[in-house]
Amino acid sequence: MSLLENIRESIRAIKSNLLRTILTGLIISIGIMSLVGILTAVDGIKHSLDQTFSSLGANSFDIRKKSNNGRGNNQSRTDKVYPDITYEQAIKYKELMEKNSRVSLSANIAGATVVKSATDKTNPNITIAAGDEFYIPNQNLNLARGRGFSSYELEFGTNVAVIGKEISDKLFPKTDPIGEYVSFLGRRFKIVGELEKRGSSMGGSGADRMILIPLETGRQIPRAGNSSLTYNIKTSISKPDELTYVMGEATGVMRNVRQDQLGQEESFEIKRSDSLIQSLNEISGYLKVGGFVIGFITLLGASVGLMNIMMVSVNERTREIGVRKAMGATSLQIRQQFLIEAIVICILGGMVGIFLGIMMGNGIASLIGEGGFIVPWIWVMVGLTICVIVGVLSGYYPAHRASKLDPIEALRYE
Predict the structure, then answer these.
(1) Which of 112, 172, 218, 392 suits a disulfide with 177, CB 3.0-4.6 Å?
(2) Whole-prediction pTM
(3) Which of 25, 26, 256, 219 is CA-nearest to residue 132?
């Protein structure tokens, strides 16, 4: 009996026990579904969050005053307080770095602010930020309508503003906000631009609840307790592969501007805009390992169930094995038939499990954000390979047992 004939005989045996084949295949499909589903969900969530974080830019970095984490072991020790980045320091840094990069300066003016129009007002959840001419492009923001700030407005600090989409929908639901006026922080501002809706799959509103004013205007607004502003610096370059080099250059320039002494730690911190993506990649790696372990344990249980069912099949077909051996079938051919049956059942169940796993994984990922439909071809191939391995491991012992049956004793079996 050739291998092709053995395959045909295995398929006929599968068809003759269709209900058992379906139930056995379901055991395998559940195991594969859990494996592929978890791994697909991880890939889908990562893809969705990658798209969310990509707006931060992979070719830029931020410079801020170093924060004090308060992690000292000595409770009585006074933690070091680093000075704010002053306007003069930020301007000097911008002048020294503007040849090789695009530098934007900004400052947080106020948070939890109420913004009023002539007829309505917002909830106290609006953020007021001040920025220069490069703030909008460096933050990867786009204008839906209107314009940015002119050179005159930036230089003299006029009362103009660019508002987020959520503010526009709240205060001017039926009218064009461009040219209208809003009031906040004791001043009246003319709206010159509206930002595109950003939204967020992470649950925040971001730029949708922000009002941007010229940096000079923000400097003129009195602050509670006469506290000074601290400035944020964002540096963007055109070639992402040069980011590490430019960050090193920026560190040296900023140390000079801040007059940090040689051997002294920096009084500022530099953070890459893609650091969240890097952290996400690390976390997703752990999730994949965990998902693979969970799926492997499920498949282990499925393989035990398949082996049990194959053992039952061997017992029920003992007389058939005896007849085939009496007609000249060798032990190798008997072993091949049962192995092929186990592998075919695993592949059929695995294909169903892969389909269900892809659907389940994308369904879970869609709950986090809109990242598109993902078909993880690597995990599909891994799943099919595992199906073959499970079929061989689960079917070998029953097949070996069947091949060792004595044909005379098998023919007598009732």
Answers:
(1) 172
(2) 0.56
(3) 219
